Amino acid sequence: MDYRYIFGPVPSRRLGMSLGVDLMPHKTCTLDCVYCECGKTTHLTLARKPYVAVDRLQQELASFLEEAPEIDFITFSGAGEPTLHSSIGQIARFVKRRYPRYPLALLTNGTLFHEPEVRAQVADIDLVIVSVDAASASVFRRVNRPHPGLDLAAVIKGLVALRREHPGRIWAEVFLVAGVNDREEEARCLADLLERIQPDRIQLNTLDRPGTEPWVQPLDAEAMARVAACIPKARWTGAPTVPLAPSEQEEGLLLPRLLAAIRRRPSTVADMAAMLGVSEAKIRPLLDTLLTNGEVAAQTMARGIFYTAKNRSSR
Asked: pLDDT tens digit string along 149-181?
């Protein structure tokens, strides 16, 4: 099947092998975060609606999952804010009813949980990973660049309500931008905020892939440790540890699957090989083709060379 809305499985630092489910058109979001690996938000909105066809999405999930693949999570993620899709609850229930062996995860910026309907729609999702990058309005504007209709106080109340009502696990991820939200005063305010939210786990992260704004810089190990000391129970997110899992792949499907993956997130050759279950030697000539055709670009980061699709739209 020609998959338009699911991708991977992707080796995740947090979730093992994760099948991605992309509910949104490319870069439709409530925020325009300076660090986003998917690029600048092109449709900044608070409007919830069925952005992609539910029937088609369910067909893709059924096609992939009927083979009973060995994956750790099915994850609502991609290049936009998943909770903007007004039928996310329906899709979650479909998976839980048809394929109960697979746990569901949600990667979200958490900005819409002040709406009771949104909290209710994620009730069937086993693990919600929510971004909490700012405890002050000024840092919220600087790092996350929210839609004008968003108020940080309301966002925080929504996260507190989610923790009170949600039956599953909630993890908080704090993305640290050097010189902005890594100062001790802001870190202690974040610690107070996280104490109110009471997540089951707190993860600290910093720039690993190319971000939206070139001025965004990662924290070094010493700075990460300094922030971690201010936030009780915080963990520093490390590199992916998922081993390469060889699998049979039809040669004709590798190139489109590779390009679909790169469009959603910049990746190294090692990332792509692990995601597709093939050797790096098979990936490199495909990348050469994409580079020659001008479909991808290369950028050197601390972890290696990342390849990014020049046309970031996945559909």
From this structure: 999 999 999 999 999 999 999 999 999 999 999
